[in-house]
Amino acid sequence: MLSVPEQLEILKRGTVTIHSEKELAMKLAKGKPLRIKLGVDPTSPDIHLGHAVALRKLRQFQELGHQIVLIIGDFTAMIGDPSGRSTTRPPLTYDEVLANAKTYTDQAFLVLDKDKTEVVFNGNWFKEMPFMEVIKLNARVTLQQMLQREDFKNRVANGTEVRLHEIQYPIMQGWDSVVVRADVEIGGSDQLFNILVGRDLQKEEGMEPQVCMTLPLLEGLDGVKKMSKSLGNYVGLTDAPKEMFGKLMSIPDELMAKYYLLVLGEELDIGMHPMEAKKQLAAKCVAVYHSSSAAQECRDDWDVRFSKRDLVNAELPLLTLSDRRDVFGVVQHAFLSVFEQTVSGGDVRRLIQGGSIQLNGEKLTDPKAEPTWESGAVLKLDKKRSVRFA
RNA sequence: GGGUAGGUGCCCGAGUGGUUAAAGGGGGUAGACUGUAAAUCUACUGGCUUACGCCUACGCUGGUUCGAACCCAGCCCUGCCCA
User: Fold this and answer.
1) Tell me, in Å, how far CA of A349 is from C1' of B53?
2) Average pLDDT in the A115-136 region?
3) What is the pLDDT of residue A381?
4) Where in the sequence is the domain holding A292, given as residue range(s)?
5) Which residues have CB under 8 Å from A233's CB, separation 6+?
6) CA A77, CA A229: separation in Å to the nearest integer?
7) In 3-state terms, chain A is what percent helix, strand and coil (to 5)?
8) Residue A161 CA to nucleotide B70 C1', Å?
9) Last residue of a domain, which of A277, A307, A337?
10) Which of A21, A228, A325, A371 is deepest in the core (most CB within 10 A)?
């Protein structure tokens, strides 16, 4: 095991707050593996790069010999974490939650070492909790404390509803810490309040309070909002290599340094041309979650397809014609058969009239036209998708 | 429980009997430009096999009317004030 200062040096990297560093040092100084908690609510089936920020931090703890406790919030997921939200989360059914939990843990192990991770479901202790216990827990937190939270405060100010079940969430998350006897809890910076509640509850149970460690939130592809599935601005850990690469190429330049730091744990070389830096970012990320050969393939494909705009030599999905020979019909069929996407007639017409649909680089603007669709010809559908005729 | 203001398209928000598929903004998509970045300009943005046509839509259900997002009744929901 590394010395305390050495461990601290690694663990502090990229954090927003540690409350407190002194406590962390003291815990590390005991020389025993610490229990590091991360709670995740399986509200969607996929983990994205935003989640991976915390997972990477856990991985560091793991490599330093500490014990990871991954709490699957099967119970809390049904309440919905109100952190940072301006509206109540839509509820999930228990079956959805369980299905998500499965894919969630599978994906988490792309980053974490499975053998050194303890996975627990918080439904284990919440499902059967007597109401009296619930009340006792509630008695430990005041309304005023809850209302000091930015998200609740904003909602109250805006006249948006805050439902009572939402204010139970921090208490539940805090109780998780008591149950698993966490020494450290990790979370995004929006988790600060929740994690601190855990400290309070632990103290009242006569335990040494957990250290609160928060990490920056990763903005999504739009560059503004927190990466999230529901906003559709995420890069999934299991996204296909080319999709992952493409998504990363679309992030705003301003975000690159942050992505380098949080996704790769590296410093961005500010002397590098932004586009080259972004290609490297995308390639490295693909290499981490897929393979370096896949990364190289993505890069080559990218250069052919977008940098040289050479769709003819690019590797494209093949399209087999249906009965329809007119532009409208072929395009709609292409979306459906190749990308499994149903596009409305209005959308198709808009793409055609907007000049997005191109055959070998020639815009096809008449939906009724019936050009000759030669084998090998390239049909561009939208900015990102093209097909080749079989 | 009482009073009061509201519930409009993905979101915000105008509209208070016909010219309303519903102003404006945001967001989104596409084109020009380009680095699938940013900025800028332009177009589109409910659905229908492509439609001066039809269907669906302004919390829900009924009603008045030639005609309703808009008027009436009942119901549901939310904010605020009072209890």
Assistant:
1) 18
2) 94
3) 92
4) 241-307
5) A219, A220, A221, A222, A225, A227
6) 15
7) 50, 10, 40
8) 28
9) A307
10) A228
